[in-house]
Amino acid sequence: MHPGHDRHGRDGQDEPWARETHCRVLSQDGSGAGGGILYCIGEVDLTLLKVRAQAGCGRLEIGARLELPSEESEGEVSQILGAARHREMANSAQTVLIDVVKEIIGDLPEKYLSFYNRAGNLSLKFHAFQLLPGVGPSKATQMVKSRTRLGWDTMEAVDEVCTIDSTQLIAERLVEELIDPKITPSLLSNVVRLPDA
Fold it and tell me: Which residues pair with 192 in a beta bridge?
């Protein structure tokens, strides 16, 4: 098995990136013959990763989509070096994180749209919409009242009806949780990283 293919740790448990098949580039140190070390974010669970690019990849654009190695294919990444923490990433990677998360949401909107369509009360006085930056009780109430029984078809419909930037708000909240994984309740845990049905 090629280094980096293993999706299980030494104790047999799945690694944090076990469900990730592709990642988006946040930063690159080095390039050319060695491929360079990349900080990336996975598309499925938004897992921050430190990886080695395939040799000869050249300079990669921020947000570039790369295939991770698996048992079936080599991928554009030669090795997953491990999960990364926000604080250990280069400032350049930290700076682009919200924009890259927004790109992922735009390309794979289903689970994020599901949040807007299914979000409910977390307590008697607190709605899940209030987890989003700048959304207070009155805005959350307005959003709930504008949601139809069938929900919204697109993120753009959420934006139009609720007069918000739905992608920006959820991206900001998710990045807050990547910076501080102890934030609760967690959209990462309750929306993004739910087990496959």
Answer: none
Q: Which of 161, 154, 188, 164 is nearest to 174 (CA)?
A: 188
Cβ(62)–Cβ(25) below 8 Å: yes
List helix spans (H) across the chain: 91-107, 110-118, 137-146, 155-162, 166-179, 187
Compute CA 174 distance to the chain's CA centroid, rounded to the nearest angstrom.
7
For 75-124, write each residue's pLDDT tens digit.
788 899 999 999 999 999 999 999 999 999 999 999 999 999 999 999 99
Asked if omega into 3 is within 30° of 0 (cis), the reply is no
**CA-to-CA dists, residue 22 to 19, 65, 76, angstroms:** 9, 7, 9
Nearest partner of 147 among 107, 110, 185, 120, judged by Cα:
120
Strand order in the sheet with 22-29: 65-67, 22-29, 37-42, 48-53, 77-83
Residue 76 buriedness (CB in 10 A; 0-12 / 13-18 / 19+)? buried
CB hemisphere CA count around 50 (13 angstroms): 12
Please give the structure tokens belonging to residue 167: 């992608």
pTM of structure: 0.89
* Spatial CB neighbours of 194, under 8 Å, sequence gap ≥ 6: 111
